Amino acid sequence: MRAVVNEQVMSEKLPKSVPSLAALRAEIDRIDEAMHALLIERSEIIENLIKVKGTQESGSAFRPAREAAMMRRLVERHRGILPLDTVESIWRVIIATFTHVQAPYAVHADLTVGEAAMRDSARFHFGFTVPFVPHMGAGPAIAAVAASKGDLGLVPAVSVAGSGAWWSALEGDKAPKIIARLPFVERPDHPASLPVFAVSHPAADAVMAEVEVHSVRVSGWGANAARTLAPLAEVIAEPDGAFDGAALLISVPQGQTLSAITDALVKAGASVRATALVGSHATRYTLAGTRPVAAAR
Prior knowledge:
By secondary structure, the protein is of the alpha/beta class. The chain is built from eight helices and twelve strands. A five-stranded mixed beta sheet has the order 2-1-3-6-4, with helices on both faces. Helix 2 (about 20-55) runs parallel beside helix 4, helix 3 (about 65-75) packs antiparallel against helix 4 and helix 4 packs across helix 5 (about 115-125). The longest helix has about 35 residues, at about 20-55.
């Protein structure tokens, strides 16, 4: 009773132009109902999309190029007190869930970097409806993706001790490929900040090829070669006994070429033994403070 009286007193003290608490709460209810109605409308469109495609076969409808563009637009138009983390996570759940409704898929995750970090990334980007399948190693996760029609694999996009050159499993023509780098929008204190490659059987209309990713095997790999590549591209290196050198995963940024990078390697004293395109993804998109910045790679 006291709370009701205090609320009435507060309302009486507000200027006449300020809406009452009851009016504001009614507005919130109206918006909530409108958002729910829009989600239902979206589901009806997805249902029609399934009919147009003719079937609801198992396989991922994940479209990294479209989703990267959607996330960039979301950041650019966002304003107000609602944290960007919340807005992005809501959109990710909506997108991933409707994608799963359209064509069911699972997410196979390599836990070698730590279960908590990888699970946070999977849940932030794909929600709880999409099945999460843990694996201890990139190899088993990629093998599961390869055996599926359209499942996704999540593999750390950073060097992890003992992981080996897992990307060699992506070299065959029919092998899965890297199709995205998550998070789509990087920023300080991101709740799912672990850099992750998404691996899947690529669909031609879904590929974002701003950054090409190549498997490169070299001999004569050393500190000088590593220093030479550092300003040119992001590189993950693993020892490679076959060539007495290293197996490299090189992310070639937009505007750069693999040939220029391999030429730099040769000048640094390394010999390039083999190369293979193993995927691509969107240019890294970062937030420096409150302003979006397209990273160089």
